[in-house]
TrEMBL record:
Residues 6-210 form the Tetrapyrrole methylase domain. GO terms for biological process: cobalamin biosynthetic process; methylation. This is Precorrin-3B C(17)-methyltransferase. Gene3D superfamilies: Cobalt-precorrin-4 Transmethylase, Domain 1, Methyltransferase, Cobalt-precorrin-4 Transmethylase, Domain 2. It comes from Methermicoccus shengliensis. The keyword Chloroplast does not apply. It is an enzyme of class 2 (transferase). Its EC number is 2.1.1.131. Pathway: Cofactor biosynthesis; adenosylcobalamin biosynthesis. Keywords: Cobalamin biosynthesis, Methyltransferase, S-adenosyl-L-methionine, Transferase.
């Protein structure tokens, strides 16, 4: 008999409740179980009557296994911060289900990722082509990260940096800033901590300034490295989309 349950992988956005999509809200309301890291389950627990099952960092595979078991007969939401496809739980769920050929019906519900929350807080830092890179070498070797960062800088993309710092990887940030300084010079860098949630802090810095003050950056921060076209105007970070080349503003 086919599975009677359903597994939703729910992107809950950056944190503020009104940054959650209606589809995510409906999934949470329908669910009998909600699984996730405590940071995320805490944010949405008042929106659901489901039984909450929390687990910590490093428990991702077990969490997915448990969610799949429960989703054989029940409606289950597995919550992921921001968007589940951007350094979130989606790939693990999809890989696990397909590799093991498990009979579970699933749906990934997108969420507002950190970069979409951070960009308008800076002005319009990301207006066109950009590259997204994580400095976490937990699942990706550092040499690969370094190569991708160099290529992105060569391509003159705006470079959005996730996971810029953590207690275990403090020097990855300094190594990345060194690469920025050598490839792009003292580029402007938007620093957004806790975008669109409690503790929000926004500042516009530069590669050399952050190199001197890396304590401005922590694991709740996103960095936006400007391209050669990025300008700071009245404290606002602007990467022009190109309209001024084509039209005269009146
Ligand atoms: N899936 C998440 C990203 C998870 S990776 C998303 O789509 O947003 C975790 C990293 O994302 C953090 O180290 C930080 O760099 C960034 N991040 C997540 N939420 C953030 C927020 N509200 N403000 C700033 N950075 C955030």
């Amino acid at each position: 008999m086919p599975s009677q349950g359903k597994l939703y992988v729910v992107g809950i956005g950056p944190g503020m409740e009104d940054m959650l999509t209606l589809r995510a809200l409906r999934a949470l309301e329908q669910s009998e179980y909600v699984l996730g890291h405590r940071t995320y389950t805490q944010r949405i627990r008042h929106l659901t009557r489901a039984q909450i099952i929390e687990s910590g960092m490093g428990q991702e595979v077990n969490r997915v296994k448990r969610a799949c078991e429960l989703a054989t007969n029940s409606i289950v939401s597995l919550v992921s911060g921001g968007d589940p496809s951007i350094y979130g739980m989606a790939s693990l769920v999809v890989e696990y289900i397909h590799k093991r050929n498990i009979d579970v019906c699933y749906e990934v519900i997108p969420g507002i990722t950190a970069l979409c929350a951070a960009s308008p807080l800076l002005g319009c830092a990301i207006s066109g082509d950009h590259v997204v890179i994580s400095l976490s070498d937990h699942l990706t070797p550092w040499e690969v990260i370094e190569k991708r960062l160099k290529c992105a800088l060569h391509g003159d993309f705006v470079v959005v940096i996730y996971n810029p710092s953590s207690r275990q990887r403090g020097d990855n940030l300094l190594k990345a800033l060194e690469i920025v300084l050598s490839e792009r010079g003292d580029a402007p860098i938007g620093v957004v901590k806790n975008a669109m949630r409690e503790g929000e802090r926004v500042c516009i810095s530069s590669a050399s300034e952050l190199f001197e003050s890396p304590e401005l950056v922590d694991m709740h921060t996103l960095l936006v490295v400007g391209s050669s076209e990025t300008r700071i105007d009245d404290g606002v970070m602007i990467t022009p989309r190109g309209y001024a080349r084509k039209y005269i503003y009146r």
